[in-house]
Amino acid sequence: MLAVALKGLAARKFRASLIGLAIVLGVAMISGTYVLTDTINNGFNTIFKTSYRNADLIISGKAAFSNGGNGNTIQNPTFPDTVLPKVRALPDVGFAAGSVQSDTVKLVSPNGKLISAGNAPSLGFSLDPKTDMRFNPAKLVSGSWASGPKQVVIDKTTADKKNLKPGDHIGVQVYGPIESFEISGVAKYSANVSLGGVTFAIFDQPTAQRLFQKTGQLDAIQVQSKAGVPTTRLAAEIKALLPPTATVRNAAAQVKEDKKDLGFVTVIKYALLAFAGIAVFVGAFVIANTLGITIAQRMREFATLRTIGASRRQVLWSVLVEALIIGLTASVVGLFLGLLLAKGLNRLFVAIGINLPQGATIFATRTIVVSLLVGTLITVLASLRPARRATRVPPIAAVREGSVLPVSRFARYGPLTSLIVLVVAIGLVSLGSLASGLATGPRLLALGLGVLLLFFGVSLNASRVVRPLSNILGWPAREIGGAPGILARDNASRNPARTASTASALMIGLALVTFVALFAQGLRAPFEDAVNKLFVGDYAITSSSSFAPISASAGASLEGKPGVTVASPIRAGSARFLGSVHDISAVDRNLPQVIHLDWRLGNNSVPGRLGTTGFFTDTDYAKKHHLHAGTPVVVQFPSGQTANVRLLGTYKKPKGGSPFGDMILSTTLFDRHYPRPQDQMVLINTPGGVNDASTQTLKNDVRGFADAKVQTRDQFKKNFEKPINQLLNLLYVLLALSVVVSLLGIVNTLVLTVYERTREIGMLRAVGMTRRQVRMMIRYESIVTALMGAALGIGVGIFLALLITHALSSQGIVFAVPYLQLVYFVAAAIVVGLLAAILPARRAARLNVLEALQYE
């Protein structure tokens, strides 16, 4: 039977290729995801290991708490540079060097534009060229190391991009206005790694300490022990010298600590794998449907095998072997195609501002095993039902005209089973999204399983609506296309189960696309409403990327400047209180002039009365933690210092959220515990309101701060929605893969039905149908099938969005329908139908009439 299977594949290479393509794309996504994320992780690992390659121990700042990667970034506190000579004096220390660093060092081109704009880190380091530089991970490409108060070494990528060289000047902005520096040298990272969008600048130690506002302080000390000294013994000696704000780790432990902030890479990996899973899942529908059609067309072949002695088991295995060979071959192709796709995914991320460091390409054994297993197993599992159908072909079918496959003995339970699956799916989705008493884990499990079953349930029941849908969706084809349109409509409803299965593959992709669109609109609408309610100022000043903080000096510099009546900063940080770590904010007394708050406890006088002992919060947070007027709360800051504050007021937070954290303090108290405060935004009022003159005046006022961006309220909304739109576009691109796979499903079905209807098409041509009309008939049939998938998918997507947004309504997400986008999705379905019909329509039109009439 192996020979039979191989000969069968050889005789149907084109059909096998169409089946395999569905798996190729899904496996390529799996392989590409692993290659990309492994390469990114390798890049970060190489950077960290290179940074500590000659160090045995690293002394670094120690924050009083960690936010676990959630909320605002917690920066480790510094420690006095007097620790360094004490460490050097230890008898077991061979060499030690201290450094300061910052991730807010913006490089500015001569025209005043940010070179390091975007979401990538803008790093700055200190270096003492007069000492041994064994801990320096950078390597000079040209020039010399910075040795003066106005010298800087910049990264090679920046130098090449802006055509800069030693001797040129460049602007640098950290916590104050832009300063001009002479480029003393150009350097690159010494390891074989791409830094992505990261820029870096290197200064001598005194200059770096001044710029980073860390005079007399250090961020880290790298230590190399003398030969033969155990690391543990030296660590114990150093620990006795350290203040409470510092800790000591060996190099491996420090690399592990640094990697804690890389959880987003894991999130990217699992998100991409989820989209790969969707593509493979859709591919399984395509495979099952295609094999089901081919088995129905190969009845005489299987019947002949049974006649000459093949058992039902042998027929079963012959089909499974075909599927195994197709799945394995497609998986191998997809595996290596993933290497190319990884580069495409990386470019996609770069396009939306995610340009991450990368090391040498990693093609791990795990990638190979998972890709091959998933692709092969999905193909084989998808072929099980069609294979079992093949075993039911009776030997008499070899000689009987018009034989059809006998129905399964379980067929009578089909309608009831499909309804049960649909009801259970709806129940699980409702439970996962609406149940309030369940833990997060079980809720997500119920939701995930429910969505999976929902797709199966809709697909199983779709055959019942094929005929009414074909009548409705086929009406334009009938009215415009005449006889070809009428035939196309009838062909689409001729085999409801087949059409439903074909449409279901497209339904899955469009359901998810619709859900994403509605969910994004549900985020956008309340945000815009919240801005309209809260933002009563004239302008906002934020960073160029909107979400990154800006130096507090930018807002402070506006006070008293012409064209500014109010400059009210909003600062952001993290602190620990009431048993956990929370985001906090800080405001000035003039906040009510730029932000309208719906006070429930207190009034507009609250921000002016905060001082160093008061705070306010939103009513929901106060209710949840049983806070009342005057309730005392102890707040711990990252430095370990604490403050006692009391509740002075509460406000009703709009559904779309607010710019504030869970606790709002005064800037006076905030600045006392945050040595380098930064503003989330600064809200401005001007004498003449919003007009071109005021806008230009403000731009002139902040010209010295390259990362400060002046925006009106509408611009503010648009810029803060930009990342949402970018993410939305990314999701559309990733979900497009499943749509492409479903397109292959339509192509498969149409190609195979053209084979199936060869004699019928020959008859139509014989009675006068032109080739053009044949092509029209196939195109209309394809469009009707695609529109069925769109109707089912949009309906399922709206249902899921309705449930999920209702479940998240307490988080400010509402149910909102982007009608124009839904129209675009329908148009996209029509395009998919047209594309899918190109090959089948051409084949049908080119059939030889006489040969078609004799076709069996």
Please describe what this structure looks like:
The chain has 856 residues and is α+β, with helices and mostly antiparallel strands. Helices cover 54% and strands 16% of the residues. The strands form five sheets. Strands 4, 5, 6, 7, 8, 9, 10 and 11 form an eight-stranded mixed beta sheet that branches. Strands 15, 16, 17, 18, 23, 24 and 25 form a seven-stranded mixed beta sheet that branches. A hairpin with a 2-residue loop joins strand 17 and strand 18 (580-587). Residues 397-403 have low confidence and may be disordered.
What's the helix count? 27
Which term fits the overall shape?
A: globular
Largest β-sheet summary: 8 strands, mixed
Annotation, overall tally of beta strands: 25
Q: Let me know the average pLDDT.
A: 85
Helix content: 40-55%
Low-confidence stretches: 397-403
Oligomer: single chain
N-to-C span:
24 Å
Going by helix content, strand content and strand pairing, the class is alpha+beta
DSSP strand (E) fraction? Answer: 15-25%
The gyration radius over C-alpha positions equals: 33 Å
